[in-house]
Design a protein that fits this description.
Elements: E1 10-11, E2 14-15, H1 20-34, H2 40-56, H3 66-81, H4 86-102
Antiparallel strand pairs: 1-2
Helix pairs in contact: 1-3, 2-3
């Protein structure tokens, strides 16, 4: 069985994902936790706080927005614990977006000057 983090949707086989980006966010969170960027307790606290913020803002908490909260909590922890700004995260996100849109199907995605990060 794959690793389950607090509050994560799962079934008897492990974590469940509706979209590939959800699995990628999960993998990134596990990797960063395993690398010691944040602890499981910090993760549970931040995810719970993010869900509470969303509910207070009117999210009906039907489960369909769970990984959006996951991603917001991950971004918050990265800015707090890894010293990255939200603008740096946004810049990297856009660099990857440009790179994957410019990459032919089946080819590895690479961040290169003009498509991703500056030279």
């Amino acid at each position: 069985m794959r690793k389950i983090l607090p509050l994560q949707p799962h079934d008897e086989d492990g974590p469940v994902f509706a979209e590939p980006w959800q699995a990628e966010a999960f993998a990134l969170a596990v990797k960063l936790a395993d690398a010691g960027v944040f602890t499981s307790a910090e993760w549970a606290h931040e995810l719970g706080a993010e869900i509470a913020r969303a509910q207070a803002a009117g999210d009906p908490d039907l489960g369909d927005t769970y990984y959006e909260h996951w991603l917001a909590a991950l971004e918050c922890l990265i800015t707090k614990k890894a010293g990255l700004s939200t603008s740096a995260i946004d810049e990297r996100t856009q660099a990857w977006r440009r790179a994957y849109l410019a990459t032919p199907h089946g080819r590895p995605i690479e961040l290169v000057a003009g498509l991703g990060k500056p030279a």
